[in-house]
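For reference, the entry.
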Amino acid sequence: MAEYLLGAGSGAGFPGAGFLDVWGCWAPAPAPDRRAVAYVSDRDGAPRVWVQPVGPGGRARVVDTGPEPVADVSWSPAGDRLAVLVAPGGGEHTQVWTVRTDGGDLRPLAAPEGGSAWFVDWTGRGDLLLVAEVSPAGSTEALLVDAATGSREAVAAGPLLHPEAVSRDHARVLLRHGPRGVRRMYVTDLSPGGGHLPGGDTGPPGSVTDLSTGPSGGVAERSLLAGLPGSTEHGRLSPDGATAYLLSDAGRDRAALVAVPLDGTIGWPISEPIGGPVAVAERRDAELDRLALSVDGRRLVLVWNAAGRSELEVLEAGGGPSGGPDDAGRAGSAPTHTGRGDAQAAADPGGPEPGGGPGWARRPLPAPPGEVVSSLRLSADGRTAALAVEGPAQPSHVVLCDLDTGRYLPVAGTGRLAGAVDAELVRLPARDGLELSGWLYRPPGALGPAPYAVFLHGGPEDQERPAFTPLYQCLAAAGIGVFAPNVRGSAGFGRAFRDADNHALRFRAVDDVADCAAFLVRAGLADPARLACLGWSYGGYLTLAALVTYPRLFRAGVDVCGMADFATFYERTEPWIAAAAVSEYGHPEADRDLLHALSPLHAFDRLAAPLLVVHGARDTNVPVYEAEQVVRAARARGVPCELLLFENEGHEIRRRANRAAFVRRVTEWLGRRLTGVSSG
């Protein structure tokens, strides 16, 4: 039933063959002295660690970390070691290793048997690294691990926990708890007697002083932005540990930068009595996507997500509100800080656009050399940002940005690819009036309505952005256009849009898929008889749901690592994934009837379109059983269905040869059904 592929060449005559062997670079980490950059690249086939000297004539060299694919790398403050995140067998159970920059002394730091681990950041004290380990049962333990000696100290534990930062004196840890969409940030005092505020005052709801035992249990934790609807995704601590800088949409629709005083005052760079959180930077037309804080706490670098494209900004300590332009080019207004002692000062979505918040001056950076910034790290002196940048026609590459001048220096990667098509941002109304958007890739030279594929991203809280996708380029080269929409539930457009598909509202997301197809036809772009639907992970689920809900709309479907039955998904996925999914899909027991109705497998008697099912045998996020069910059910009803199974991949296709084989197979399979032409 399965076709096993371990990788294949591009082959002669395949349209878009030049896109199959393209390599990229991502996750750059600058050396402490800024003389080199470490990054992950699949330039020789599998993702490995490379080090590129900065300056003319420097040649990149690989750091041998063994045969397993690498997912991330980070340079130690001392400069002699790297932390490396590896994915054994290409699966989802990652491990943390450390290696000298010359490739010597490779050894594991966090590799729990049957579980997973990842690193967060170096603490700034020696070779201590903040690490998280997840047990097979789904409980997470936050650890401080000495990369030089391997000694470790547990600082917190609990379900759905993610350590975010630790103060330089190791007296305070910032922890994130909870499932997607409703995550909360907590601070834990590790010093003796820590965790209690002067006088034991717990403060009003929504303030930083709400005190509880905390989800980790046993250690007093203070909930930040408590009582406010929304989610807090990331955070950093000021050098003195007195202030938490949070990326949060708690109490507002779009994610912003919020400063939370932990000791009654905002700490460095100012000491001003403040009773509650302060909105340091926010925009009505964009969401905060990433943030980085310099080691000395005097510089914040922000990456904004404006309808999918990245924009960068620097906040400098010691200034008042900036007089520069805000997100729409208008003059910046006064900051939202009012001195009020409650969280509403940071949560009022109808307030003015802030200029820079107390103690900060805002300064935009020039546009990066690519539409999407996927990674951001600062040099030790805070003067340089290492970025991974990409666009529809350019694979992910590494650049350095001089934060004083705004100049970008290319470090590693390839340039714009000849023959690649750009993406166009398109907006359209759903049937209930909600505005949707997506990225359109037109097939070159198309005259009149053409075959089109609607591609659906994962998540569901991911976002389709104008990044480099070999599949889109190969489909366009084969004469098949691509529309990659952000249906309701996608990130990047505010909390209300992200939550618009939760639970029973998910049926409306399925309708969004049909509305996107109807838009393509109505706009004269697509031939209604030559439409396909495909997607990855949640997008694979949404593809199956659309095919059975609108059985005559699409001529073919491609399900990549998608869920087919929520009951079996909850039974077989990782425990922490099952727990995190409840807030979006529903509870497997309390919402059993709803989940049954939402599961496309139970409506396969309506399936008409032939299916290509793609999965990784080592996928533990969406286990391969979901794919096997789809193939059995489709074939039992006489619907043509093929399975493409990668033995050495998990939920993602990490190896370049496998990615080329996947793209080639999907392009050829859709080509036969939408254009009547078999490529290659």
In short: The first strand starts at residue 2 and ends at 4. Confidence is low (pLDDT under 50) at residues 1-11, 193-213, 266-273, 320-356.
